[in-house]
């Protein structure tokens, strides 16, 4: 857990640290403490599923250190009157910045070029990394397609526009105030852009929304960027598309089974792999932590919650 | 895969003999065919074509392919293919040459110009002109055609990419994952910095600097200020102006160098400027290596006097100070800011267009004007 958050929780509450328990001991641990535990602090990777919720009969609130709440069984929480909070807005800029960073890094091969210089090959007169057909690709003015035009998707659109890119999007519903081209299905979106960015929340509808058909529509000139959730993308399909050259490249910050990353991707120069760092700046982690604490304090003092999901 | 059959001149082709084949297989690459494709002249026609001198083999020919720079209206005279010393070669072969094609690496001064008495135009593949003795060219009435504005967006994108990479540790954390450390060592250690609200100091607010400013201020919510030879019209350029680079650095979280290399800008980023930038400061260089006192910058990076750097250019390319190769807070790039497929296509069109215009006595497409 983020150390600042841990320290604050420790000083203000009676903190039970589940991650310190060996997995086999967890049911016993929960059982012996179930009466006193009233709140759960979760994150993007470890949430509150039905089993956990059911084992804590006095649970009142799940406060997530993330904006996504796909790892929380909302239905169960709703049934039991348990509040759920997340950390929207404070991380929007950082995640959007990372989205653009991924695009630039993949198209311009920033990391392989850096490796090329460090290896001494540039000094030896080898042009390898930058020669045709491994060309670096332009970002400015390219058509960008965004899946999910919420806070993060909109922030990505705003940034891409500053590079002269045209923006189109697919979303559950059209956003009338946003003057970008709307596609009511993701395949058409993919056909009409060369950079596809996943920035929506993970629900039953959006699980594997990027599948073989979408990847084929995006095509061998296209790149896929994922700052949503790993489960948005059919990962094995993505891997085979990249291995077979049916996609020009990919920039990923999230994966289906973090921290496991598909092995074949580790050796591809046209794939950038980040360890789920979308909101990992010191400033944003502090803001997220403060929001978790504010939600907990508000709840236990019977005040309105700052950022409730339910 | 398409095949173009090239017959050698003045020869009928006996049945069964070899025909020279020029493979165009690369044109079926998913990125599509390049629409400028020269049709080669016959040997007899070639003899009569005006010559364009090349002193060095341009990097763009290696990277993109020489065939994109050819034309039915001129032919290349390649000094570097001769075993003669350059001055002898030029004296013997280039006395009537009127056009010269150079790249960033081709230094052209009075010595070379003396050997080219008929030279009337220099076309360069580079955005910068520091390799040319501009005063000598002006004195001799030699016109210059630069790469104009074709690279500005790509160089600006490179600058922004390097800046975000340094602040958000993109390359470093990609290495972390690809080395298998995420699974074995745990989450990447926190230490990234936000881009929002950062004060950006741009040195040189020309075509490239303006594009960098637009991306960072309009796109990312940074605050841009600048230093330039002259203050720009505030009605057109809304960013605060600093006369002094050191003062700009003192008021910036990141310095982005976008200026041309001149006598005034050589080592403009010196010990004082780096000290003013400070321990949390980042430097990005997409201009020329010599705009920075490289040795001093390296020392600052090694000793933690500045926080990081994103560098596309170096004082003595392709040599990069070995200390930089060990640092995790720097991102290094092999002077590749302009080497996108799109820019190379534009460059080929522009170079051929400028040369063809010159030989047709038409205005150059991208003539450099002193201001």
Note down, in words, how this protein is organized.
The complex is a heterodimer of chains A (310) and B (371). Chain A has 310 residues and is of the alpha/beta class. Chain A has helices at residues 3-12, 26-33, 50-54, 74-80, 92-107, 110-118, 151-161, 186-191, 212-218, 235-243, 282-300; strands at residues 39-43, 61-65, 83-85, 143-147, 166-170, 181-182, 195-198, 223-226, 249-252, 271-273. Chain A contains eleven helices and ten strands. In chain A, helix 5 (92-107) packs across helix 7 (151-161). Chain A is globular and about 65 Å long. The model of chain B is unreliable at 1-37 (pLDDT under 50). Chain B is globular, with a radius of gyration of 24 Å. Chain B has 13 helices and 13 strands. In chain B, helix 12 (294-302) links the parallel strand 11 and strand 12. Chain B has helices at 43-47, 59-64, 86-93, 110-114, 134-139, 152-168, 170-178, 181-185, 207-220, 245-250, 271-277, 294-302, 341-359, and strands at 3-6, 20-23, 51-54, 75-78, 99-102, 121-124, 143-145, 199-203, 223-227, 254-257, 282-285, 308-311, 330-332. At the A-B interface, helix 5, helix 6, helix 7 and helix 11 of A face helix 2, helix 6, helix 7, helix 9 and helix 13 of B.
The strand count of chain A comes to: 10
- Count of runs of 4 or more consecutive helical residues of chain A: 11
Biggest sheet features of chain A: 7 strands, parallel
How big a fraction of the residues of chain B is strand?
5-15%
Largest sheet of chain B: 6 strands, parallel
Number of helices of chain B: 13
Helix content, binned percent of chain B? 25-40%
**Based on helices, strands and strand pairing, what is the structural class of chain A?**
alpha/beta
Q: Which structural class is indicated by helix and strand composition of chain B?
A: alpha/beta
First-to-last CA distance of chain A:
24 Å
Instruction: Please state the CA-atom Rg of chain A, rounded to the nearest Å.
Output: 21 Å
* Envelope shape of chain A: globular
Unreliable parts of chain A: none
Strand content of chain A: 5-15%
Strand order of the largest sheet of chain B: 9-8-10-11-12-13
EC number (chain A): 1.1.1.79
Family (chain A): Belongs to the D-isomer specific 2-hydroxyacid dehydrogenase family.
Domain D-isomer specific 2-hydroxyacid dehydrogenase catalytic (chain A): 28-309
Keywords (chain A): NAD, NADP, Oxidoreductase
